[in-house]
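Below is a filled-in request sheet from our internal design queue. Each sheet records the structural input a requester submitted and the sequence that came back. We keep these sheets so that new team members can see what a complete request looks like end to end.

REQUESTER: design group, bay 2
PRIORITY: normal
MODE: inverse folding
CHAIN LENGTH: 454
BACKBONE (tokenized):
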């Protein structure tokens, strides 16, 4: 309905009642009392002479009336789902022709989108067709908020808007939206319904922003972003954005490159963290790419905050800032946290300038961080992830604690306390590993070996 009202705006339509059920009309149809079948997908055009016919409950539920609308009609809203009045001078035949033009134009546009999808046209060509029905330009982002492509023309200056800082290719500026605004955006994104929404940015109070997100099988593949530089966002424009979002979902599913972009994550890290079988040779090959070795000294860092970090639009800002601080690291989102593995020789985060820089970043972003002990066996990564997650959880009861460091003595004490209960997730520390070898050699269990050794 919003699309129809946009197209009929020149006639200044007056909405007396509009269906909230999301009815999608297929056509306009002239109404007179001799009609025997009424379609719920038609918007019926009534002239002044036929207005009385709608008093019959068997009449149409969706009406657009021309001429002088009887007062009795507005008093019988209970029998109507939709009532729109065109007060201006327009004949019934002209209104029917306008309706035909609206529907045929929309169908031609939608067919062109589907044909571009079938023909596997480049994303730029696809978005060019999509933007034909939009009053404002749009940008398409991948799941890391990098610009894939843009379409549309600006009629006015972009100064002061987010468009001023976006080029193609580029990323959304991490500091354009406040942390509170990013939290709100992550809530919208996590709904996964593909519906567009509007919002405001304190950095640009003169404009309204609109976004929608492309979800496939519970994974975020991309987002659409727009600003009302040329014209305000109407219900009709939001309907068009929703249609484009749905068709982009089909486009991504039929173009494997975009599917691979999302799946291109550190699978070997996931395997290690999940405790799955993976050979040291395979992991070593991955580490060779960044000139690391399995027995280098490492630290595992786990970052938590109030934002849902499983939604890429929320986590990407934090990841970019952490990457800027410690670029030569492995960083990803795992479960509900951001995880980072650093080589300790590159960034000794437990002391000095690196620690101070990290604390400033945590304070700025209202985040907490747990740091494992220094270790030199990359294949036991899961144990140090659990250490760092435990350390991050230790920050929550302490409002003034931004970062918590696990120490070897703390880990050993946890092991001694937990091993009798067969809970040994925290048990791996370079000082503790020899206990296992000694226990095996002496035919004793780890718990007895710990008590003897420490």
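RETURNED SEQUENCE:
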């Amino acid at each position: 309905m919003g699309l129809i009202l946009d197209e009929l705006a020149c006639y200044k339509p007056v909405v007396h009642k509009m269906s909230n059920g999301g009815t999608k009309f297929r056509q306009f149809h002239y109404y007179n009392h001799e009609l025997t079948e009424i379609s719920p997908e038609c918007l019926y055009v009534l002239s002044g002479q036929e207005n009385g016919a709608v008093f019959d409950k068997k009449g149409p539920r969706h009406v657009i009336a021309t001429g002088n609308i009887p007062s009795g009609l507005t008093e019988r809203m209970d029998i109507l789902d939709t009532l729109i009045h065109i007060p201006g001078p327009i004949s019934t035949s002209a209104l029917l022709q306008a309706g035909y033009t609206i529907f045929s134009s929309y169908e031609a546009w939608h067919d062109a989108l589907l044909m571009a999808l079938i023909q596997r046209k480049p994303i730029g060509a696809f978005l060019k067709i999509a933007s034909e029905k939009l009053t404002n330009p749009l940008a398409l982002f991948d799941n890391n908020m990098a610009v894939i492509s843009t379409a549309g023309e600006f009629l006015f200056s972009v100064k002061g808007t987010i468009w001023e800082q976006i080029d193609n290719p580029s990323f959304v500026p991490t500091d354009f939206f406040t942390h509170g605004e990013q939290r709100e955006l992550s809530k919208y994104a996590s709904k996964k319904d593909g519906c567009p929404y509007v919002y405001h940015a304190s950095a640009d109070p003169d404009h309204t922003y609109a976004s929608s997100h492309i979800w496939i099988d519970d994974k975020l593949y991309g987002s659409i972003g727009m600003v009302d530089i040329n014209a305000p966002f109407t219900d009709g424009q939001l309907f068009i954005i929703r249609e484009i979002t749905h068709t982009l979902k089909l486009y991504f599913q039929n173009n494997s490159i975009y599917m691979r972009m999302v799946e291109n994550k550190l699978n070997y890290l996931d395997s290690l963290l999940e405790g799955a079988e993976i050979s040291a040779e395979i992991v070593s090959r991955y580490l060779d790419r960044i000139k690391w070795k399995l027995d280098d000294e490492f630290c595992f860092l786990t970052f938590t905050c109030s934002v849902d970090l499983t939604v890429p639009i929320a986590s990407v800002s934090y990841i970019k800032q952490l990457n800027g601080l410690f670029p030569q690291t492995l960083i990803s989102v795992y479960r509900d946290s951001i995880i980072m593995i650093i080589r300790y020789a590159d960034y000794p985060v437990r002391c000095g300038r690196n620690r101070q820089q990290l604390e400033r970043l945590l304070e700025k972003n209202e985040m907490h961080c747990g740091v494992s002990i220094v270790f030199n066996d990359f294949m036991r990564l899961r144990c140090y992830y659990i250490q760092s997650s435990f350390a991050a959880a230790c920050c929550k009861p302490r409002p003034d604690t931004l970062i918590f460091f696990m120490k070897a003595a703390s880990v050993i004490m946890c092991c001694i306390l937990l091993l009798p209960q067969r809970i040994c997730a925290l048990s791996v520390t370079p000082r503790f590993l020899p206990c296992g070898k000694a226990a095996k050699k002496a035919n004793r269990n780890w718990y007895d070996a710990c008590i003897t050794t420490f």
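SHEET NOTES:
- The CA atoms of residues 174 and 317 lie 5 Å apart.
- Residues 120-262 form a domain with the Beta-Lactamase fold (CATH 3.30.450.40).
FILED BY: M.R.
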